[in-house]
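Researcher: Predict the fold of Protein kinase.
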Amino acid sequence: MTTSYEPSLPFGTTLSGRWNGRTYTVERRLGSGSNGQVLLVRRGGRRYAMKIGYDPLDHQFEVNALQSLSKTDTSFGQFLLDTDDAEYEGKRLSFFVMPYIEGSSLSKYIRANGAGWIYAIGSNLLKKLVELHQSGYIYGDLKSDNLVVMEHGRVEIIDFGGMTAKGRAIKQFTEIFDRGYWCAGERIAEDSYDLFSFAVLIIKTLDKNDSFRSAIQSLPQNRCISMLEEIVQRNDRLKEMAPFLLRALRGQFATSKEALIAWGEQGKRIRAAAQAPDSHASPWMLLSLAASLIALLGTLGYFYWR
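Model: Structure tokens for Protein kinase follow.
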């Protein structure tokens, strides 16, 4: 649910924090959703991302979760920079400020740089999920719109509106990435929920035959996990990942850390197959090895020793 007031803040609007006294100037809107909008703002010579919440309870929950994450020894430790209220047109706006991350969407990055980057991107995204899960939270609304991909396949998550404490009901989701939509499990905040969404994200990104589009257009009573499994088996690029993707879709990973290790080991197996004298590895597979091997090894080393 949103409030009836969803402010339109034009370029040059100045917002002054009531409690912390910091002033921000709006440059443009970066995006919006059911629970708020995200603005590109400037303070002094630096740019930031500001999220203005529509629903006070949802907004406060997200702030509380980010404050908790900020106290952890993870990559999210410096994510929450400021939280405050401001007045605009006689209304109170609750906001928080995050680093502004420049990059592109997952699909745009893959189109520009090739499908070979999917292993590096997937590894970096799984590492983020492991950090969240080990901190007691499930991301909940994992989808391409909530990701920014940067150079060398680095990934940042940019919206935490769906973040849910483990064991509770998922508070926000997007249907096609939700396992309940595919009759594949309950909407409970656990590692396997995010891993299902991760698998769907990979399938949707690499599906070039519009099989995924056909599946989501089917009648709800006919929609099931076997549709996704068939897409994986029919697509040459996805078939190489089938051992991982099928386990993630079926909820067969106990933890996201286990999934991360399996993702890396799968990459190493494909590398070994591609280097075999009689290898007939696909061109995209060979590209993926060159693009992502260093990132995979680094990530595996990090989590084996944590």
